[in-house]
């Protein structure tokens, strides 16, 4: 039995407008505090809106207060379909080779560094948007464990050890993260 009251409100979400944030921020760059019109800030805003849209698109939709680390983990796995980093499967003849001499059919993933930077931005955004540090799902231990597993798996598969990056808790570290932007299609 299908209930007869579906309001197709899909097209009218305010999140639809998130693509325009960048343009607004760029137009804003003549402001006084805009030596660098922080790419980090605009990226963080985009990430945050994308995550919000992702939660809304769940069936049933997930509100921010319901959001827990499992939603975040699902989000990270969901992002892999937009990844651009070749991660060889164990059976691939190029497994563990940093520069394979030929193409292979292994899947593309989000690079660990991109996910790590993304989580950092979303963790900050969560608290800037009223979330409590105690319930911050982006700061949970299971996210750290997941990211570590991804890093180790990718390091083995690609034969490229990840350099130990200094943990930075400051929010203005734009240059570092700009090279590891997540690209949504
Ligand atoms: Zn491969």
UniProtKB/TrEMBL annotation:
Q: Name one GO molecular function term.
A: DNA binding
Where are stretches of biased composition, namely Polar residues?
170-185
Q: What region holds the ALOG domain? A: 39-166
Give any Gene Ontology cellular component: nucleus
Q: Which InterPro entries match?
A: ALOG, ALOG_dom
Q: What is its main location?
A: nucleus
- Residue ranges, annotated region (Disordered): 161-185
Q: Which Pfam families match?
A: ALOG_dom
What family does this chain come from, according to its entry?
Belongs to the plant homeotic and developmental regulators ALOG protein family.
PANTHER family registered for this protein in UniProt = PROTEIN G1-LIKE2, PROTEIN LIGHT-DEPENDENT SHORT HYPOCOTYLS 10
- Protein name per its UniProtKB record: ALOG domain-containing protein
The organism's taxonomy opens as: Eukaryota, Viridiplantae, Streptophyta, Embryophyta, Tracheophyta
């Amino acid at each position: 039995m299908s209930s007869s009251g579906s309001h197709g409100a899909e097209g009218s979400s305010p999140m639809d407008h998130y693509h325009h944030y960048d343009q607004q921020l760029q137009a804003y760059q003549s402001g006084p505090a805009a030596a660098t019109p922080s790419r980090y800030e605009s990226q963080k805003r985009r990430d945050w809106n994308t995550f919000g849209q992702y939660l809304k698109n769940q069936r049933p939709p997930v509100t921010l207060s319901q959001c827990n680390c499992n939603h975040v983990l699902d989000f990270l796995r969901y992002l892999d379909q937009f990844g651009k980093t070749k991660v060889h499967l164990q059976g691939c003849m190029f497994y563990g080779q940093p520069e394979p001499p030929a193409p292979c059919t292994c899947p593309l993933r989000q690079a660990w560094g991109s996910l790590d930077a993304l989580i950092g931005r979303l963790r900050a955004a969560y608290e800037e948007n009223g979330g409590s540090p105690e319930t911050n799902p982006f700061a949970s231990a299971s996210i750290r464990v997941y990211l570590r597993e991804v890093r180790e798996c990718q390091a083995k598969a690609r034969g490229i050890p990840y350099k130990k990056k200094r943990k930075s808790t400051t929010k203005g570290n734009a240059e570092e993260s700009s090279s590891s932007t997540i690209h949504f299609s």
